[in-house]
Amino acid sequence: MRSVVNIYTPLKGKIEEARELCPDVKLYRVRVPKEVHYYPGQFFMLSLWGYGEVPISVCSLDDTQTLEFTVRKAGFVTSAIHQLQAGDTIWLRGPYGRRFPLEMSYHRDVVVVAGGIGLAPLRAVIQYLLKERRKVKRVTLLYGSRTPDGLLYREEYDTWRASDVKVVLTVDCPSDGWRGNVGVVTTLWHQVEGELREAVAYVCGPPVMIKAALTDLFLLGMPADRIVTTLEAHMKCGVGKCGHCYNDGRFICTDGPVFTYKEIKEWDLTL
Amino acid sequence: MKGWILPKNSLSYWLRQLRKDSDLIGPLRTPDGDIVFESVEKIHEIVLDPPASLPSVKEFFLPQYETVFVFKTDTVRPIQEKRKRVIFGLRSCDVAALRLLDRFFLDSQPDPYYSERRKNTLLISVVCNRPDPTCFCVGIGAGPYLKEGFDIQLTDLGDRYMVEIGSPRGRRAVREYSFVFQRPRKTDLEDQFEVQLSSTARFQQRINLEGVRSLILSQRVDEGFWQEVANRCIQCGGCVYVCPLCSCFTVTDRVYQEHIERVRLWDACLFKGFTRLAGGILPNDAPVSRTKRWFYHKLIYYPEGIGGFGCVGCGRCAVVCPSKIDMATVVLNIKRVSENAVSG
Fold it and tell me: N or C: fewer beta carbons within 10 Å in chain B?
């Protein structure tokens, strides 16, 4: 047995920009010291010495020197990350996990379904679809948030629309002046361009929403292996060793986090 | 003829030689009468043919608490233990468990800490002549003796050991001191065979995990059964800590005045907070989902992912479990319940 490289050693990154997207959610642009190749759906372990590590999916595309992460202030480590500003150091290791099967979308209609911060990993998917716009047919984004203030990447919707992406927004609690839809994202299927049974879906959001969306899409005739989602789990290692994200014989970190509905049909996602 | 003979009065000499560049670990008896593996100072204190130790030797490869990184003034230093070890007197089941952990920790994305310790450790296992009442390795192929996978395997033949070599590392440890070893005679091999037979015959329980696995997979074990197991479980985590194959860990940072240590410690899937997400979502909130997870991992998913049961039949969980829902008991109950269901 020979010596092996230490897979847990994080790289030292530098925050180039820390931008508040909405209360409790910030977008970080991080410059890394060496080229890192990653793909939509993959995640990194962001690391702060003295606090710990958290798995955060990458929400940008292609740029091997600067990576973007959207972080919601939810716990101990993410609260510490939220204290950081441009110029500060953040450590990271990755990318880990399975990618979104994006080639699957070629020559098909695509529906992207997101709830709340679930849009973060899907932002990278949308960027990919924009890049490969001519290879995919119609693209619809159904995006739900609790409040209008909670909608992420608001200044990017126009760019997306300009590339012929139909952006449909909905909120649970409308504020004055809100003119979009009200209600959960699964009330918007009729807004999707094209035939669902011929389309591909990429879904991410809170567990309840994922469960509802996957079941709906399946019942509306979309084949289970074309309904793709990405799951969240407590993780300590990211490489299939610590056991925390283990579920039903699979590690969310290495076998996922991207799964097709076909693979996880039996799972109770809201457990 | 294969193998070597080591006269028992040469054992301490050989171990003394091996200890020259390594830490010697062996089974010692504590004042309370427990058997624990510890660094050996006086070789004559090693307990030959002891009952199963509590806990297993996994702590020498995955310590209960270890510092993995030290962070100081903007630099990160991995802490890698380099010292060489010889573990003497571990059982076949413990070696079998390590072989499975090897696959888990080393086959893909190798864990550097486990790898380094494994690389630096020589295992000298001893065939069990007298299995404990709780032992059931024999039905799993993890004991009482092994056909492969060991570095050096000793079989106690009374006044001498039969020595079998299973790895290059084991061969070196014998070859360097070949003058204390003798060639076996035909009678030695006959004696060894007899020991293997009598030891195998001494097991008080025969447990067929394969049969239980198919009962579970064919939906013959209902939710109510697992609910009953969960009702009895007090979630102490004892089974997890003594199990030679339970390897889940957590990682946390400890802040000191001048530096920060990133440490990893044993964790247990039976604990409620094991899967808790930031923001308060708690998967596996129901105790039954956690109990099931432990048994399913060992009986169903370990064979699928690693290629062997996540249990080597060491029986340690039966010794520590205060609720009598250890692997052997639960597995035997599954058989009993489903057989009754068929006949009734």
Answer: C
Of A241, A245, A271, the CB nearest to B105: A241
Cβ neighbors of A263 (< 8 A, separation 6 or more) are: none
Give yes or no for A240 touching B (CB within 8 A): yes
Nearest to A74 among B249, B255, B279 (CB): B279
For residues A194-216, one letter each, b for 16 or more C-beta atoms within 10 angstroms of the residue's C-beta and e for the rest, the string is: eebeebbbbbbbbbebbbbbbeb
- ipTM value for the complex: 0.89
Each residue's pLDDT tens digit, B179-225: 999 999 999 999 999 999 999 999 998 888 999 999 999 888 889 99
Give me the total of CB pairs closer than 8 Å, taking one residue from chain A and one from chain B. 118
Under an 8 A CB cutoff, do B119 and A242 touch? no
Q: From the candidates B58, B253, B292, B297, which should be mutated to test the interface with A, based on the most A CB atoms within 10 A? A: B253
The whole domain housing A130 covers 103-264
> A77 and chain B: CB distance < 8 Å anywhere?
yes
Question: Quick one: angle between helices B327-343 and B223-232, nearest 10?
Answer: 150
Instruction: Tell which of B216, B250, B256 to mutate to test the A interface (max A CBs under 10 Å).
Output: B250
Same domain flag for A126 and A207? yes
pLDDT tens by residue, A23-48 = 899 999 999 999 999 999 999 999 99
A61-88: per-residue pLDDT in tens?
988 999 999 999 999 999 999 999 999 9
Residues near A57 by beta carbon (within 8 Å), at least 6 away in sequence: A41, A42, A43, A44, A69, A120, A121, A124, A230, A257
In a domain, A16, yes or no: yes
Number of domains in chain A: 2
In this structure, the number of other CB atoms found within 10 A of the CB of residue B159 comes to: 8
* Final residue before a domain boundary, out of A96, A123, A139: A96
Is the CA virtual torsion B177, B182, B188, B193 positive or negative? positive
pTM recorded for the entire structure:
0.92
Q: A265: closest CA among A215, A226, A222?
A: A215
**Interface contact B251-A237, CB threshold 8 A:** yes
Q: Which residues contact B53 (CB under 8 A, 6 or more apart)?
A: B27, B34, B35, B36, B37, B90
CATH of the domain at A132: 3.40.50.80
Minimum-distance CB partner of B251 among A9, A236, A247: A236
C-beta atoms of A8 and B284 within 8 A: no
- Determine whether the interchain pair A243/B267 forms a contact, defined as Cβ–Cβ distance below 8 Å: yes
- Rounded distance, CA A256 to CA A239, Å? 11
Chain B contact present for A266, CB below 8 A: no
